[in-house]
Amino acid sequence: MMASNEDHPHGDETVGVPITCDNWRNKQLNEAKDKIWSEIKRCFDIEENRRDHCLKLAGKLLRGFRTFLSTTFLRDTEGTFVDAELPSKYASLISPKEWETFKSKRKTQEFKSVSETNRQRASSPAYPYRKGRVGYGRLEQSILTKENSSETSLPAHVLWKEARVGKDGKIKEDVQQIFEKCETLSQSIVPYEDTDCRSILSRALDVPEYSGRVRGKGFGITQKSLNIKKQKTPSNKELQQTLEALKAEVLELRKERERDRAAGFKDTSDKDSINCNFQPTIPEGISPCHLYLARPTYRMVGKGKVHNNLGELLHTKPLPTGSLKVSVDIALEKDALLPHPDDVSDATLLGDAIGSFVAWPTDLIIVGYETPTKSKAKDKGIAREIESVASQKEIPVAKKTEISKRTGAKKKNPSNVGVINTYMRYLYDKLMGPRGLEQRFSFLNPMKTNLTEMIRKPDEVRTYVVERFMADTDREKLFFLPFNTGDGGHWLLVAINPFKEIVYYLDSLHIDWTTYPAMKTIVDTIIQTVRAQRKIQVPKRKANNITWNRVECPRQRNNIDCGYYTLRFMKETLLMDRTDIPSDYFDEYRCAYYSKDQLDEIKEELCQFIIELQVL
Fold first, then answer.
1. Could you tell me the pTM of the whole model?
2. From which residue to which does any coiled coil extend (predicted)?
3. 204-229 pLDDT, tens per residue?
4. 3-state DSSP call for residue 352?
């Protein structure tokens, strides 16, 4: 870690982080971190999404270097402080002034007190590791092998407890108490009200979050890797498939409403529904069961136990209507999407839910491990044929009558970007043009600005967006960027005001932008580039002061409506004719989630507009 160039004999030739830096998260270090990252990329072929991981390691190395300097040069064999001169070996990295400051900090009583506390804690940890030289990684694999488990990992708190079991097989009472506290927390945390970003283990231990607490899990292992595939330009054939699917769904929606009106039913889609949590067709109590999904084909995806008890809750929340609480024991199809994603563990795939509780539709649960012959499920969500605005991977889907099991023929899935772009064209023609809003709002092409392109072709993304922003430097303008996380994945809205250097982040899953570091880095770089080309002068300490506002927008209640939410966010912003988006969203449209009618409105507008375009 190189030293700062302040009072340095080599002037501007060396740039880095001074050894006097005690807070690696200090924003004043952002410029130095950018240069460190640039140097890493110059020497190694590494993806942009590994930036945070590498810089965390750099901070760890800096702390280690400071400790090395203290123990080697500033202490004698008895631990007494020594007022040593700057080591000649490091004279090219550390300036004399910096060395004197470094020494003076270590003379203070505060530093000595903290140092002694840390030394005692390290020599006698509260919960000592009891597996000798067997690391967490090998311990985890040995447990999974011994249990003949198909899993690839264990929950962090389970592994933490196993690492503290002695040779006699006994567990200390304080360790068991922490484990039980973790189990209780996993069932009691309310995701919608939870503001603590720490893991369950960190909360139980009452310590700050640290991604390497269970060694072997390591730094950077904080989210799943993205399997990114290049998106293709939608063809007329794909748009035709999208139109047919939309038309069929809109027609079905209209028929369903007519049937409900005729039967005297009221639409309760915009109200919270509470499940009675008891189904007479399933035995009362806990029963073994098979778990099925109806799409893309009707098939068994796992095994578990269904809990059919009156008043049953899931993580202190009522179960979704028509669903029961299920514990997942075996995942036959680990990549299968959960019918209801688990907000507590952030699990969206069946493989992530093994060993935990999830909600499962009653008509897709078969008790007693018998094999069903017919599905009772009727999916009333967004059909996978039009999941071009949905949140999960693109899966070729069609109705059972449209799939030949004998030939294996499948209907091709339409393009995500095609539907998004078509609706943006609708907004331009029907809202922006007639209301004269094209001077205040604009769209960025999601095909050129998705996560796939940002990681693979960052320079091309920057060039494209900078050119768009520079074309409107004489006025304040809000640019809509519908952002896709890759491989036809999750959709969210990033609205950018380059004039005021403000970014509005609207995610219907309420996930923070730090989940997509590559996206944030590129957007920040683009704004800084536009600032430089506009010759805007800002103090050096404020060079990275770009405002990111996370908007508390309506939240989706399933895993397939994020695209429709993204489209509606853009529409409502245009209707409000505001280039600023309040942090708690617009008063006129504020709600916990969009009703069925509000989402159907987007589908009908899209369907009608595709017909009007006559491009098919």
1. 0.41
2. 236-263
3. 887 776 545 554 444 343 333 333 33
4. helix
